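Run log, item B.
One chain of 94 residues. Sequence copied directly from the ordering sheet:
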Amino acid sequence: MKNFLLKEQTDELLVMNRLLEDQKKELTISNNTKDRFFSIIAHDLKNPIASLMHVCEFLVEDYNENRIHNIGENIDMLHKASNKTFKLLENLLT
């Protein structure tokens, strides 16, 4: 009787172990997919955000050097770049 119970428990543990191994494989695949997704998003957003930062730097320079005539152009560029970046982010998240 004890041998039968031990065998039954051993079989049950083997089944549970296989299930855990399968879940581990699925989790690894899921994590790799998530990492690729975030890598793509980071790559696609890096350049537009860098452009926004440069336009902001130009605005600060223009303001500090009292070049008011350039500020309007830079604000327009900032507005367009931020809209493009936002649309890119929406597309990536969709």
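Observations after the first pass:
- The chain has a mean pLDDT of 88.
- The chain has one domain: 2-93.
Flagged for discussion on Thursday.
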